[in-house]
Every structure is written in C-alpha cells, then in structure tokens.
Amino acid sequence: MLIVSTNDLPGYRIDAVLGEVFGVTVRAQTLGAGMTAGLRALGGGEVPEMTQLMVQSRNEAMGRMVWQARQRGANAVIAYRFDNGEIGAAWSEVCAYGTAVWVTPLSDHAKKQYEAMTQAGGLPHQLPG
C-alpha cells in the first residue's frame, strides 16, 4: 500500500477515488508508566514511556486505516494525516486518515517501485520485521 501525505502521487495516475478512510485507537497509560513519566517530566527532556505509547498508538491507527483502504479495494492512500487528543487525564486518542485511491504507475521509477512493492507484499517499512 502506497501512503503519502501529498494530494497526488508523482509518477502515478489516480484512476479511482474510493473515499475517506481512517483508523482510530485510544490508549491508556499504565499506572506505573504514568508515575515514572510524571517523575521524569520534573527533570525535563523526553519522556520515553510516553513516546513509546504514542508510537504504538500511531502504528495501530495507521494499520487500521490501511485495513479499511484494502477493504475498499485501494492500492494507495493520499492526503494522509494524523490527529490526536486527550480523553480525560490518562487516555490518548490517535486518528490516522486519508483518501483511499486506486493508482496506476506511469513513470519507469513508479513501475519499478510498484512491482517491488507488490512482489514483497508491501513497502519495506510496512512488512513484518
């Protein structure tokens, strides 16, 4: 699945717009991680516990968006964005959204990229590690 934040996909022709797709997740931090993060925040700097929570949330929301796009028959998502917010004091919500489309590669580079992606079952960063 090709996923881009732009409204078009250079080297590709958009043949069909299949509609808006999104994925949402709501996560709560554990009591232990919340206390550790709170103590770490007193000293300033990055809070790794919260960073990990946000990365997991983003990946989950993105995976759900991709699933929805595949259900619609898309091979790409354009205008990809994230939104996030808090629900109460301990819950965070992340939404990934975009427009599901069917694209056809036109340029030589796009054709090579698309062929490699379809043979591998996804782009390198989307494949299970």
Highlighted features:
3 helices, alpha+beta, single chain, 129 residues
How would you describe the overall organization of this protein?
There is one protein chain. By secondary structure, the chain is of the alpha+beta class. Helices cover 38% and strands 36% of the residues. It has 3 helices and 4 strands. The chain has helices spanning 31-42, 48-71, 108-120, and strands spanning 2-3, 12-28, 76-87, 91-105. A 4-stranded mixed sheet has the order 1-3-4-2. The longest helix has 24 residues, at 48-71. The protein is elongated and about 55 Å long. The two termini are 17 Å apart. The model has no long low-confidence stretch (mean pLDDT 84).
Rg (C-alpha, Å): 18 Å
Distance between the termini: 17 Å
Spatial arrangement of strands, main beta sheet: 1-3-4-2
Most strands sheet: 4 strands, mixed
Tally of individual helices: 3
Query: Which overall shape is indicated by the principal axes computed on the Cα atoms?
Result: elongated
Q: Proportion of β residues?
A: 35-45%
Tell me the layout of helices and strands:
Layout: E1 2-3, E2 12-28, H1 31-42, H2 48-71, E3 76-87, E4 91-105, H3 108-120
Parallel strand pairs: 1-3
Antiparallel strand pairs: 2-4, 3-4
